[in-house]
Amino acid sequence: KDKYEKILNEYKLKPEEISAIGDQLLTDIYGANRMGIRSILVNPISNVDFFATHFNRFFENIIMKILNKKELFTRGKYFE
């Protein structure tokens, strides 16, 4: 959230004027959504993660399974 606030302030932008693109649900997407910024979840470009990212992805996978079970989000299904 802090990084998004910094960008908004530095470039004098409003949340509805930008989009955030990221491959991590718990950092990139959640942070953007907390700020009211449109977010785009993409597939990771690498199979290698830093330790913290690997840790986050463990919880991300649990969340994704719950969302999939509730039919709220399906990984690999893209929306326009």
Which structural traits does this protein have?
about 80 residues; about 10% strand; 2 strands; single chain; two-stranded parallel sheet; 3 helices; mainly alpha; globular
What do you see in this structure?
The chain has 80 residues and is mainly α. The protein has one domain. 48% of the residues lie in helices and 10% in strands. The protein is built from three helices and two strands; from the N terminus they run αβαβα. A two-stranded parallel ribbon has the order 1-2. Helix 2 (25-34) links the parallel strand 1 (19-22) and strand 2 (38-41). The two termini are 25 Å apart. The mean pLDDT is 90.
Average pLDDT, all residues:
90
Question: Which class do the helix and strand fractions yield?
Answer: mainly alpha
**Which term fits the overall shape?**
globular
Number of DSSP E strands: 2
Distance N to C terminus: 25 Å
